[in-house]
Amino acid sequence: MKREKALAIVEKQLKKKRYEHTVRVMETAIKLAEHYSGNIQKAEQAAIFHDYAKYRSPEEMRRWVIEEGLPHDLLEYGDELLHGPVGSVMIEREVGIKDPEVQSAIYYHTTGKQQMSLLEKIIFIADYVEPGRIFPGVEEVRVMAFQDIDNACWMAARNTIRFLMEHEQPVYPDTFHLYNEKLMNKK
Ligand code: DGI
Ligand code: FE
Ligand code: FE
Ligand code: FE
């Protein structure tokens, strides 16, 4: 699918701010794919569709989790976690995008996981460091993204865990698995 067509599809699904974020994630993901010799077309497509489900109601997203047989524990960690996994199946059903690599990058873009593919890392980190993001610690990760993407993913997981704990929010286990991976020398 051509970039313009894909962007037009997601623009209808998103609020203006979120659409602008999506375009910046796309630009960042393409730069990372170029830098790390990844698949630029897949990085572009995954970035464009990564927040496709973001504005569906919690009720609708919960229904998709159940009807599509996604892990039910997703329902216990807060609705913010659902739009990645749900989006990855929605784009197949509603847009006809059937590409396991692209869908997996969308699925894990919020939590990360251990043993991520290059494409999964690119989308996870592009979402975190796109130039519109301004939270504490982001600049350090932005620099690291183009030096050592594994370390950048680890830092993003660490910062996210810190943030969630500060706000006494539950942390999804995949985020801990990504954080632990480096420290436990699993890779
Ligand atoms: O969709 P975006 O805003 O572009 O970014 P995102 O998909 O990374 O979502 C960020 C939100 O997800 C933010 O509110 C924190 C939350 N989040 C990230 N990791 C976890 C999490 N929430 C829970 N409960 N557990 C996590 O591990
Ligand atoms: Fe997201
Ligand atoms: Fe993120
Ligand atoms: Fe996003």
Automatic annotation (TrEMBL):
Catalytic activity of the protein: P(1),P(4)-bis(5'-adenosyl) tetraphosphate + H2O = 2 ADP + 2 H(+)
Record field: transmembrane: none
Key words, A-Z: Hydrolase, Iron, Metal-binding, Nucleotide-binding
CDD domains in alphabetical order: HDc (cd00077)
E.C. no: 3.6.1.41
Lineage: Bacteria, Bacillati, Bacillota, Bacilli, Bacillales
Name under which the protein is recorded: bis(5'-nucleosyl)-tetraphosphatase (symmetrical)
PROSITE patterns assigned: HD
Residues covered by the HD domain: 18-132
